[in-house]
């Protein structure tokens, strides 16, 4: 299926879930993610802050775990510039002042900027992924642009409420595949 078809189908599947279900699945995913990060703690981990009204996977347990148990890892998150289609990255600390933008994304209000080249692991939001590690998001190309500016060694871990589809049929030269994807029941390595 194409990205457009998959986006429509999985947006609808996600909308149908009860918040309590998303909560349970988010916890299962986050426990797996914490185990994966413990193996080789990154220096700078980029984490998206969830749009909870869209039933996105909650990432706050992972963030708290890092803050209080993994002092060698700095948490990084973005301010999204929708006009220029870019994500600007900043440190996320327990005392960072956060504000919600018009899309429901919580964003740091300024702070310490982090260069893309420093980020060695990225947790990637998605609507669906395939057995080759390609993903479909909301369609803005924000993560494709951001991941292109990271180093080739940067780990890219998708998190998904749903199992993979066989194939996204219309991937293009801009699509950057994931290195892992975590679902509530499995960790896929690509
Ligand atoms: N938490 C989070 N932050 C992120 C992303 C993401 O997917 N999740 N992005 C990833 O690229 C970028 C922002 N892109 C976005 C694009 C569209 C919508 C949005 O709300 N779109 C739909 C509603 C979706 C729904 O019904 O569930 C809309 O157009 O109304 C939000 C963020 C950067 N930051
Ligand atoms: N590095 C890039 N430079 C220019 N255009 C890009 C780049 N990356 C992606 N695009 C364009 O952005 C558009 C959206 O891409 P795509 O459908 O893959 O988004 P997505 O991965 O679902 O969205 P997101 O990354 O925001 O979750 C496509 O037209 C794609 O060609």
TrEMBL record:
InterPro entries reported for this sequence: FTHF_cligase, FTHF_cligase-like_sf, NagB/RpiA_transferase-like
Keyword Iron-sulfur assigned: no
Keywords of the record: ATP-binding, Ligase, Magnesium, Metal-binding, Nucleotide-binding
Listed Gene3D superfamilies: NagB/RpiA/CoA transferase-like
Presence of the UniProt keyword Translocase in the record: no
EC number: 6.3.3.2
Cofactor(s) recorded in Swiss-Prot or TrEMBL: Mg(2+)
One of the GO biological process terms: tetrahydrofolate interconversion
Binding site for substrate: 49, 56
MF GO annotations: 5-formyltetrahydrofolate cyclo-ligase activity; ATP binding; metal ion binding
A Pfam family that the UniProt record links to this protein: 5-FTHF_cyc-lig
Binding-site list for ATP: 3-7, 135-143
Reaction(s) this enzyme catalyzes, per UniProt: (6S)-5-formyl-5,6,7,8-tetrahydrofolate + ATP = (6R)-5,10-methenyltetrahydrofolate + ADP + phosphate
NCBIfam families xrefs: MTHFS_bact
Protein name: 5-formyltetrahydrofolate cyclo-ligase
Higher taxonomy: Bacteria, Pseudomonadati, Bacteroidota, Cytophagia, Cytophagales
């Amino acid at each position: 299926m194409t990205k457009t078809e998959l986006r429509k189908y999985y947006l609808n599947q996600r909308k149908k879930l009860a918040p309590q279900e998303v909560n349970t699945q988010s916890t299962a995913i986050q426990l797996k993610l914490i185990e994966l990060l413990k193996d080789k703690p990154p220096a700078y981990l980029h984490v998206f802050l969830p749009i909870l009204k869209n039933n996105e996977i909650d990432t706050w347990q992972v963030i708290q775990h890092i803050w209080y148990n993994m002092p060698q890892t700095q948490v990084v998150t973005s301010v999204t510039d929708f006009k220029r289609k870019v994500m600007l990255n900043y440190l996320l600390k327990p005392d960072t002042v956060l504000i919600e933008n018009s899309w429901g994304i919580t964003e740091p209000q300024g702070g310490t900027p982090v260069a893309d080249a420093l980020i060695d692991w990225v947790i990637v939001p998605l609507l669906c992924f395939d057995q080759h590690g390609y993903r479909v998001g909301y369609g803005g190309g924000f993560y494709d642009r951001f991941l292109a500016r990271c180093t080739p060694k940067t780990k890219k871990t998708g998190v998904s409420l749903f199992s993979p589809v066989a194939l996204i049929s219309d991937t293009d030269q801009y699509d950057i595949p994931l290195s892992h994807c975590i679902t509530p029941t499995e960790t896929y390595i690509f």
